[in-house]
Amino acid sequence: MPVDTVPAAPITERFGRLFDALDSDDDGFVTWTDYQRLVERYVHGYGLAPQERRAQAVRVSYQMLWQELLRHSGVEEERLGREAFVGAMHAAAEDRSRFNAAEGVAEAVFDLLDTDGDDRISREEFLRYTGALGAGAADAEERFAGVDTDEDGFISRQEFVLSAREYLFGDDTRSPGGFVFGVV
What we know:
By secondary structure, the chain is mainly alpha-helical. It has a single domain, classed as Orthogonal Bundle (Recoverin, domain 1), CATH 1.10.238. It is 60% helix and 5% strand. The protein has eight helices and four strands. The strands form two sheets. A two-stranded antiparallel ribbon has the order 1-2. Helix 1 crosses helix 4 (82-94). The chain is globular. Residues 1-6 have low confidence and may be disordered.
């Protein structure tokens, strides 16, 4: 089902930045291999074995998102150029006809970050994650504060998933929720 609407400028900018972050081999396309590289950064950054539950959950959530992107893109190949990716990401993020794959990624990444299993992300857990992505400490601290909306020093699951939604749909193209999808 091809995307038949053009995303608004902030969404185009936001998903263009996501495209740039994901196109890790700079070939002008996003492929499943690019997503695998992102997943490997997470797994390596957390010292997880590939068969561990948290590693598998992140991998599967990204596989589901990738399949949804392909479904929404309408392209025959299993690679998406910038325009196809932006349109497909916009459509997949808004698709409520089934499990929303973008929010599934947020849930799986939350579980990855919550290393002590207390259903909240501490500043230390968040900084470990942003370090695995290659973010600078000052930027990471600013993003943590932006996601910790109740200012209790922790990020709840609700705050984390909401930050992903705000990244996908909000007006702020620099939303701190971009970290959920690997945007540094």
